[in-house]
Amino acid sequence: MKEACQRYLEEPEAHANHLAECAECRALFDTLGIAADTRAVKVDALPLAPWEGASHRPWPLVAGGALLLLVVAGAVCAWAGVPPMRVVQSSLGGVQAMQALVMGAPDALRGKIGWQVGIGVGFLIFNTALVLLLRRAPRGIDA
pLDDT tens-digit profile of 1-18? Predict the structure, then answer.
């Protein structure tokens, strides 16, 4: 292997014209089934997948789904003969009850010192277990 061939294999983008000059490298790429004009992909510059934060967002699909949901809910209300505002008002009662339950939980636990100590000890045990698990060496494929 020549020095020029080695430089091409290390940095194909910087030495792109090497394949046009070297018959041995072209033959090697042909035996591997790789087209000579195919360039190596830089791993640090791979395109992002949609779930990895790429710029494409399906907002029209989300808006269309929400609009379809509202239309179906309106059709069910009309079919049942119930005004939509009455459904909203009846739902607010359940929401207010859940809000009162959540807002009252700290007051209920505040007077009980046993609960506070138990939550604190559980917090420490849980976080200690996480730290110990994260400090372990990860097992790879070759382990």
Answer: 678 888 887 877 777 777
